[in-house]
Amino acid sequence: MACTKFLTFNNGLKMPILGIGTWQASDEEIETAIDAALEAGYRHIDTAPVYENEKAIGRVLKRWLDAGKLKREDLFIVTKLPPPTNRPHEVEPTIKKSLADLQLEYVDLYLIHTPFTVCINEDGSFKFKADGTIEIDPTTNHVATWAAMEKLIEKGLAKSIGVSNFSKEQVQRILNNCKIRPANNQVEHHVYLQQRDLIDYCKAEKVTVTAYSPLGSKGIAKLNASVGLVRELPDLLDIEEVKQISAGHGKTPAQVLLRWIIDCGVAAIPKSTNPNRLKQNLDIFDFELSPEEVAKLCALDQNLRICDFSFFRGVEKHPEFTFKNKFNN
Ligand SMILES: NC(=O)c1ccc[n+]([C@@H]2O[C@H](COP(=O)([O-])OP(=O)(O)OC[C@H]3O[C@@H](n4cnc5c(N)ncnc54)[C@H](OP(=O)(O)O)[C@@H]3O)[C@@H](O)[C@H]2O)c1
């Protein structure tokens, strides 16, 4: 099985519409998962330094490339400029560290992970104040950081560059001031947070969109709990309409949720470390949702943001923090 659908960037390069997400997986889990994902036919891998697994992913990629089982150009690797190094002078050293860890010469897509900047301690841990809130750096300058991102293309360290968690206004500010247009905006997108306005805007501006947490990010509950955040999060796989539609196609709720996303012309990067679920998530190209089923799924929108970064307590004070939804309105 392989991902047979691609999104074409404004620079002509293509990204497989389905990839594997890698957040919240240990080194051991991710090594097994990436091996299984490559065997299953995945070629698009989404990671980030804050997931702390680039080295483990790099070990698997090296094994596959050294063994001649894959060529570098067969792969589509995405990583990100983390929130603590969201400053122009940190862009190049930060991507070089990711490339060293991934054992690659270039990444296919490099994203500014968040529109805001947070601070870290000397040991690299996030800097929390005595009251438990995170220290922010309010001086974030997207236009200056973007100029540094553009240099990565000239230097051959990234094939394409983009953003993540950016609002319409933040993307527009870059478009007004760039030499190279962002190729992609990676945002939370699923049936309960459809962000139609943002997605339509990005498409009109030829900025492709990738949906993160497409299955509702069950794993986030553990992270929320670790910072004392108690929150009832929905189970997207248990929504009645989704279950009915999936039964009608002999597919699983996860497959229906993913198919709906790619039919919207948006890429999806579901995370799984389970080989069967990995295969299942890629096996979505052999059925079609009817217009009535699509309408039913579109009607489920609740503007319910699951990954609103409130595990960084106090980040909403950053001038570039824009998320508004049920939980933090
Ligand atoms: N740019 C950003 O700020 C940002 C933020 C969040 C996420 N991301 C990226 O997006 C990726 C995906 O988002 P996510 O990890 O938050 O959540 P997700 O992909 O929506 O959900 C992952 C959860 O669903 C489970 N799962 C996967 N496939 C399943 C299936 N077929 N049936 C039932 N359960 C299934 C996984 O468990 P098992 O592993 O046990 O299968 C895991 O608990 C991340 O891994 C990361 O790469 C980016």
From TrEMBL:
Family to which this protein belongs: Belongs to the aldo/keto reductase family.
Active site positions: Y51
Organism, as annotated: Drosophila lebanonensis (Fruit fly)
GO molecular function: oxidoreductase activity
Keywords: NADP, Oxidoreductase
Cross-referenced InterPro entries: AKR, Aldo/ket_reductase_CS, NAD(P)_OxRdtase_dom_sf, NADP_OxRdtase_dom
Top-level taxon of the source organism: Eukaryota
UniProt xrefs under Gene3D superfamilies: NADP-dependent oxidoreductase domain (3.20.20.100)
Name under which the protein is recorded: Aldo-keto reductase family 1 member A1
Annotated site location: Lowers pKa of active site Tyr: K80
Binding site for substrate: H113
